[in-house]
Amino acid sequence: MKRTLVLMAGLLALAALPVMAQAPAAVATGKVHGQVLNPTGQPQSSGTVSLSTDGTSSKLDMPVGAEGVFSGEFAVGTYYLIYRNVDTPKDQMVDSVKGVKLVAGQDLLQNIDMSRQEFIDKMAPEQRKQLEELKKTNAAALQANAVIAHLNADLKTVNTDKHEIDIAAQTAAQQLGAGASKANIDAKTLEIKTAKYTDIESLMTTDTNAKGDEPLLWNNLAYAQFGLKKNDDAIATYKKALDIESASKKPRGEVIGQAQAGLGEVYARTGKSDEAQAAYDEAAKADPARGGTYLKNEAIIYYQLGNTAAQATVADKAIAITPNDAILYYLKGNALVGNATIDPKTSQMVLPPDCIAAYQKYLELAPTGPFAADVNGILASAGQKVTTTYKAPTKK
Question: Is 68 in contact with 44 (CB distance < 8 Å)?
Answer without folding.
Answer: yes
